[in-house]
Amino acid sequence: MPYKNNILLDTLAGKKTNRYPVWVMRQAGRVLKEYREVRALAGSFINLVTTPELAAEVTIQPVDLLGVDAAIIFSDILVVPEAMGFPYKMEEEKGPVFSKTIAGASDIHLLENADVEDRLAYVLEAIKLTKKGLENRVPLIGFAGAPLTIFAYLTEGKGSKTFSATRKFLYVNPAEAHMALQKITDTTIAYLKAQVRAGADIVQLFDSWAGIFEPEQYKTFGEIYINQITKAITEVPVTVFAKGAWWSIERFAQTGCTTIGIDWNITMADARQKAGNTKVLQGNLDPCVLYGTIPDIQQASNKMLQGFAGNRHIANLGHGVYPDTDPQKLRCFIDTVKEFNLN
Amino acid sequence: MPYKNNILLDTLAGKKTNRYPVWVMRQAGRVLKEYREVRALAGSFINLVTTPELAAEVTIQPVDLLGVDAAIIFSDILVVPEAMGFPYKMEEEKGPVFSKTIAGASDIHLLENADVEDRLAYVLEAIKLTKKGLENRVPLIGFAGAPLTIFAYLTEGKGSKTFSATRKFLYVNPAEAHMALQKITDTTIAYLKAQVRAGADIVQLFDSWAGIFEPEQYKTFGEIYINQITKAITEVPVTVFAKGAWWSIERFAQTGCTTIGIDWNITMADARQKAGNTKVLQGNLDPCVLYGTIPDIQQASNKMLQGFAGNRHIANLGHGVYPDTDPQKLRCFIDTVKEFNLN
Question: How far are the Cα atoms of A81, A84, A176 from residue A157, in angstroms, in the given order?
Answer without folding.
Answer: 11, 15, 17
